[in-house]
Amino acid sequence: VVFFAASLFFTKRRQGRRASLNEGKSNVKKGVATMNKEEALEFLRLHQPMPSEFDDDLDSETVDAWDAAREYFTENPCEEAIPLFLGSIGEGYLFGTYQMLDNFFALFEPDVVVPHLVDALSSESSWTRRWAAEYASAVESGRSDLIEALLKLLFDPDEEARTAAVITLKYKFLDGLVNWRDYEATLRSAYAQ
Q1: Number of Cβ atoms within 10 Å of the Cβ of 88
Q2: Can you list the pairs that 176-184 forms with residues at least 24 positions away whose Cβ atoms lie under 8 Å?
Q3: Among 68, 143, 180, 192, which is least packed, fewest CB within 10 Å?
Q4: Radius of gyration of the chain, Cα coordinates, nearest whole angstrom
């Protein structure tokens, strides 16, 4: 409940900030709406990671370009974009656009996307770990490497990363994709560390 309330509060705050970024501007997305594969990949390569949502250096054109890349690759899935999107995650929520990326990850077979998510779950960036845990819920997979990485995240120093892991694991366990007893040793080992 607390996580939901906080998420709702920050979403409303982000929407207000994003609206203020767009004040007085015409359709800033107009120039990037026709982004092609190479332009989208290049944009993502140049934004590893995106500027912080809490930083004055982030402008609406950059947010809209990231969102245009997301839209392009949701319409035209490309494995090459998976690690670039995960690497592009900066501090914050990118005014509500990071959460829409789960649709992109759901387009891929687990054997394609899970290795990238597992790598991201051990990223140095707490924001990357948090979002990777959330995106893992979009992947229909009970793969042991993904479950083990999520279990280890339960002991992460970052509260949001832990919360995202709990929610994803709950979703996976409740849907019967995995049996928690199969991972009891992993959980004990992660707790011991």
Answers
A1: 23
A2: 177/140, 177/141, 177/142, 178/142, 178/147, 182/144, 183/144, 183/147, 183/148, 183/151
A3: 192
A4: 17
Closest CA to 88 of 134, 132, 48: 48
Taking the C-alpha atoms of residue 135 and residue 103, their distance in angstroms, rounded to an integer, is 9
Site of tokens 């607390």? 2
The encoded tokens of residue 117 equal 């998510």
Q: pLDDT by residue for the chain (193 residues), tens digit each? A: 444 444 444 444 344 444 444 443 333 343 445 799 999 999 999 999 999 988 888 899 999 999 999 999 999 999 999 999 999 999 999 999 999 999 999 999 999 999 999 999 999 999 999 999 999 999 887 788 998 899 899 899 999 999 999 999 887 765 655 566 666 666 666 666 6
